[in-house]
Amino acid sequence: MEGRAIWIVMALETLIAAGFMLIIPLITRRGLLFGAYVGEAQSEGEESRRITRGWYVGMAGTLLLTLLLGSVLATSIPKRPELAVLTVVVFLGGTFACYLRAYFQARALAVTTAVSSAAAPLLADTPASLALPLAALGFALVSGAVAVGYAWIHYPDLPARMPTHFGPSGAPDAWSPKSFASVMILPLGTLVMGVMLGVTACLTARAKRAIRERDGGVSLDAQVRFRRAMARFLSGTTVLVTVMMGLMSVWAVRTALGLATGMPPVLMPLVIGMVVYAFGGSIYIAVRYGQGGARLERRAGGAALTDGLADNERWILGAFYVNRNDPSLFVEKRFGLGYTINLGNPKAILLLLAFFGIMAAIVLVSLTMPQTGAR
Amino acid sequence: MQEVPTITLDRATDEPAYEQIARQIRALVTAGTLPAGTVLPGVRTLAADLGVNLNTVARAYRLLADQCFVRIRSRSGVMVAAPPRRAAPDASASLAAELDGLLARMRQAGVAADDVRRMVNQGLGKASTAGRESES
Predict the structure, then answer these.
(1) Looking at CB atoms within 10 Å, which of A122, A260, A368, B8 has the fewest?
(2) Which residues of B touch A124 (CB under 8 A)?
(3) What are the CB-based long-range contacts (under 8 Å, 24+) for B54-61?
(4) Which residue of A has its CA nearest to B47?
(5) pTM to 2 decimal places
């Protein structure tokens, strides 16, 4: 049953991810095409439309291939749901190939003259814009600390074996010998994930504003509204993830102590709610605002993008922004939804290394913990 | 939607970035578009938006502060300054010296005295109008 559920979940996630990839050209800021700045007029020309059609065909093919492979594996080897990772590899590989093809075609159309202008509004950021993200970060710090503290206080009383995995019913189905890793990995993970998401929300609230030249303030208004929506969405994600992981941490300890028989009933609805929030929220922002407020700034007409977003020399493959002169940490993505890091800023690189380092440590510790199905 | 004043940076020109920033803010203050008390973006925010080094914006703001166009406060940030009721003696002296230098250049360039007076009157007229608009 669990094996079949995994295949169904993988198929659904593939459909949602593919759907998102297919709408990206519709939510991209005018002037940008698959990670390259080609100019406002060119981005709506016949050649751009041809490149976009190629993207749709390629992504449809990738989706069909992935679903076909998943169906074959699910029916021929149903007891090996871990093979679902192969469908992820096929989907990601196909998507990457489609993107690279579209990017290089768009780059060939790109504006060849160096970008010579930048524009900035003389508008100070209000303290209110940081209030919600800071509150979410504070909540994550407190909740994470509570989860860590609860596990640490009860550490001496825990039995020789700790429940480390719980089934769909909430009851434990795998155990590991008691150790610092088996007891503390989930509480520490709660603290780390919560803080990282909270910091991301704060950085998003203060992300660089990329406006257009002489457009009567249309693009600035669109940028501010998009940035606010993204910061609020990430603040909500921070709270939900922290609550979910905090509950799991505390109830894992309670189950080990015999104070509970498994995860609380509220956890499953919370997990489902979080998934709906994450996917639904992303789609809502994409459709309502577009990337960087693209759908709100249509009134700006052909006003040109400026500075970082318009300078192809600052972007590697249209996805990685590198500008040592730019003090920004977070800049708007050229392709996709949200923000990306300025790899030319040493602080941003440290942030990225810290994130990947901690995630790698958590994964390594999880993999090295011996697990059995028997208590 | 109220239009927010913006400044642009032209990297193709020889004029240093900090001078471009200071010049445009000065012009907006003189025109009354940025009235006294307007809080300007912080150094980091403006530098990020323009994609320039922090020191470039800091230098522009210091220049404007030296010229009494803005006030820099550690807590409240950078704010457009109201002109004092009376110029400080040393400010008057240095501006008078700059004016002498400018008049000498205009004379040397062949600008007639009547044209100079006309330009001065036009400039004073604009400054007065902007001052009245910002007070109202």
Answers:
(1) A368
(2) 39-42, 45, 77
(3) B54/A327, B56/B17, B56/B18, B56/B21, B57/B18, B57/B21, B59/B18, B60/B17, B60/B18, B60/B19, B60/B21, B60/B22, B60/B25
(4) A327
(5) 0.86
